[in-house]
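<instruction>
Derive structure tokens from the sequence
<data>
Labelled lines for chain and fold:
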Amino acid sequence: MRDVVMNPVVFFLIKCVCVYLSGIGFGLIVNLPHKALNIAGFNALLGWLVYYIIITTWGGLGSANFFGGLCIGVVSVMIARWKKMPSILFDVPGLVPLVPGGQAYNTIKSFAMGNYSAAFGYLSEVIWIAGSIALGFIVAELVNKIRIKVARDLRRLRRSKNM
């Protein structure tokens, strides 16, 4: 039987579709409003694309998850203002592709099999990834607060020049 080799572009597009559907699917599980599902899927895709680009160019697992979380956090707040909805509706489904589920599974499996050195290796990866994503969200909140403050100061400056 011969091996089927898939075109890398087609494989990448399949990954993108699956990431988009995972965002929508998780949104359905947590009862997201139907008018927010499509945007939540695109937010998941955008965060994963940032992750994917960084992981394939720089190769850092922590930095890729940090910037993916940062992108999801910043875009979620902007979408929430645009749609007049809470930003958490777009944060949670956006995180689904970044969650270290495989490493968490391997951690539990290694503990159950008695392979403690591998289990602690996987556990450190889970903690590193989760911490990077959380730090990305913290920085996203900071970026959004700075963006709001700068916009407010610019409006005040324009008003004072017009008077």
